Amino acid sequence: MKTIGFFNNTGGVGKTSLVYHVAWMLGLLGRRVLAVDLDPQANLTSMFLPEECLEEIWEQSPRPTLHGAVSPQFRGVGDIAPPVIQDVQERIGLLAGDLELSQLEDDLSQAWPKCQLGDERSFRVMSAFARAVGAAGRAFSAEVALVDVGPNLGALNRAALLACDFVVVPLGADLFSLQGLRNMGPTLRKWRANWQRMRPSNPDPSLTLPPGRIAPIGYVVMRHSVQAGRPARAFGKWIARIPADYRRFVLDQPAGEVDDVEADPNRIARLKDYRSLMPMAQEARKPMFLLRPADGAFGGHQGAVLECYSDFEKLAREVLLRAGLPADPPR
Q: Which of 185, 240, 260, 310 is the most buried (most CB within 10 A)?
């Protein structure tokens, strides 16, 4: 299973919606997908599950969430518990998020430096998310896991991203997203390098540790307005700066000159603002590209739905290819 994190240091760019739609599209393309909600706000979970289902899950003890799976490890009463997978669709499983994930921040912060000293429990704590995701992936026979994390550089996200083979960076066409790259890129490299140095200090060879690759495979430009088929001038200004900043701050490569922004090999996709489709999709509790006239998507909306389907199909196939998976499932 390939594990792909979706992460940016800046919030409000549509990251969770991106994960949700990519998961649905991969399922439609015949891939078995595990959606993992490691954002304490649990927005991805609320997109997949209705409120009454969330209420039922969060009232149980232990909770059938990702927090419930790793809780014994953090409480010192055992190893991770078998993760509970919520069935969303035949090919889509969900590791539900939990607001209580934020309570693990302090333990994860304290465990990180102790790994350098060869402390076994600290290695178990730091690898708990990765081991839970791996166990869920095997149970669901998933080919790919999509991990949603919050927009910060804290200890929780460090442990969450260590569980990821790859990372996709959603970006808004604005100043805040570009500033986020300046913080995110160097931090990811530091986390990766430190983890590689610490891993050999693990005293228990039977403990499976994540490799912590966190390899950037590209960015997605989100929610820009379009005029005459091209981004509006206000957004185009920032879009033009993304290729150089991504290379410099995320890939640690020379920025160089960009002759053709549209041909940037690091850009996975550029998604426009689908405007009224998103409110309809939220009301219908389905992806934008599956809206039907019965959901209110009639007339001109159907053209937008078809365009949205095409955009996300191309995006999902490209993500698979960059993660080393064939764009079409094996027969």
A: 185
